[in-house]
């Protein structure tokens, strides 16, 4: 299993939207090649953090990949693909970007070093640390 982080502006599509959907949803609209390539690497069952960007800058939940990369339904351009994800659980304690930056074992996480990338990998070690910080079982 691999681990990921999905960033979204909460006023566009937030954690509550993902939870209330109650079913898998396309992670569509990604128009960055590196983020798209990360989605191409995903397998069904992979897990990811749901991150509120912009004003909040915090990890708020955990999602699961339910469909591997396929054409993004929001465009006719064949270059763009997406995966489907579903909400798994909320973090008991949301983890802010500042919390991540202050943890010495998270200094190399992509979120700190390439904060603009909307879909990014997370190592297993980083996953376990953040889950523990957030009060959930990794």
Automatic annotation (TrEMBL):
Domain EVE spans what residues? Answer: 2-133
Per the database entry, which stretches of residues form a coiled coil? none
Protein name as annotated: EVE domain-containing protein
User: Whose protein is this, by species?
Assistant: Maritalea mediterranea
The uppermost taxa in this organism's lineage are: Bacteria, Pseudomonadati, Pseudomonadota, Alphaproteobacteria, Hyphomicrobiales
